[in-house]
Write a structure and sequence with these properties.
Elements lengths: L1 H24 L3 E6 L4 E4 L1 H8 L3 H4 L13 H14 L1 E9 L5 E12 L5 E9 L1 H23 L3 E5 L5 E4 L1 H8 L3 H4 L10 H16 L3 E9 L5 E12 L5 E9 L1 H52 L6 H31 L8 E4 H18 L3 E4 L6 E4 L1 H17 L6 E8 L3 E8 L6 H6 L24 H11 L3 E5 L7 E8 L1
Parallel strand pairs: 12-14
Antiparallel strand pairs: 1-2, 1-5, 3-4, 4-5, 6-7, 6-10, 8-9, 9-10, 11-13, 14-15, 15-17, 16-17
Helix pairs in contact: 9-10, 10-14, 11-12, 12-14
Amino acid sequence: MPNEYKRNEKQLSESEEKYKLILENVNDLITIINENLEHEYINEKAYFDLLGYSKEDIIGKTPLTPLHPDDVKKALKTLREGFKFGEGRNEMRVRHKDGHYLWLENKGKTFIDIDGKKKAILISRDITERKTAEQKLKESETKYRLISENANDLILILKQNLDIEYVNERPLLKLTGYSIEEVIGKRALNFIHLDDANEALNKFYKAFDKEGHGTIEVRIKHKNGNFVYVEINGSLFHNEKGEPRVLLITRDITERKKAENVKIEEYKKLEELSQIKSESIMKASHELKTPLSSVYFASQLLLKNFKEQLGEEVLSFIEIIYRGSQKLRHLIENMLDASRLESDELKLNLRDENLVEILNGCISDLKHWADKRKVNIKADLLTPFILEVDRIRIEQLIINILSNAIKFTPPNGNIIIELNDSEKYVEISIRDTGIGLTKKEKGKLFQKFGKIERVGKQLDIETEGTGLGLYISKEIVELHKGKILVKSQGRNKGSTFLIRLPK
């Protein structure tokens, strides 16, 4: 019997030593308190490592002492209820010896010791990191909820089945007339115009499955039955459980849509008016062309065949009639061409032509006028150059550019014409020593009716014209898939027109 007693005593001692070793080496705080709420035992190493306290700092003292003042009342209640009901649990802030606070999660259970006294064992774990993260998350949620609730845009969160999980109330009521209770849990497509639903459905599912973001314009239903145009920007994110969600930022664009529709209607009206105008010009021009041609050819015939029979006074009147009818014919042809260009009725008749022959012909046609204005045209064009062009339109183009050069070059000036070959295009250069162009003038040069007013500028030039010639010239070049450029260093520094036609 004594041997058995000694063996039991030894086993008990070994068991106590083992559990003491465990208690002294765990990271959690282990505490035993009595019913007077005084510490009787602590695992000192864990206490010192976590809170900086030694056994002397704690034993015999109440666990309420190092608590945050705001947590004392709640802790006292938990301890009393724990002793009464046998267990308890709470989360408290405990002061470190150096003054800062740590969050501890405490679990307690009562027991009866060998003397028959009720005690409580408390196990406390550091949860400071978790509580800090929770606090940051709470602050973040509060901040973003505040932003959301005060935003002018409607903000929604959709689940993967497209049910509405969240919506900010004030914009919802303002934009749709619905309350939160009327939309939460409902399918988002229920509030979208039927004609826009399929496109919206595709966009929403693409946001979930592939792209992760997208923008769409749809009509959403107001509670009164009307529809409101909105622009929706959607982005995919995952909530704290890892579940996919789509955030929708929805903006009212009704006024913008109204303005766009007004623009479209106005544009249609302008197109109709432009068509009517073009048709009227075409009709009037054709009606003027026939009687004007009679006047032109009759005056030309008189000047050519009856010059000697006519008196000087009559002859001068016929010359005035001839020049006037010639200018009017040119004006009418330009107006007809401008109308044809507007209605895409000006077609090219492309054939292989000798550009040198065309250029020399145009120079010959205008030589009399150039000589009269004492403007010298220099062109050394001998080697034939064949290119597929519309001869009549290229002649019209060269006559227009060359006429302008003669018109705006003062007496004793020069015009140099060159034909240059490159790998991709042929370049016709018409350079003059005339009055040149300002930056502003170059900006409006090729516009329809973009006539540059030079009357009253004390320049020895001709100023008549409609502003159609260069517009038509540019269109002719572009119909040939070419490009026309103008260069000028400014007033009285001459101009160079470059016509580039692709090979």
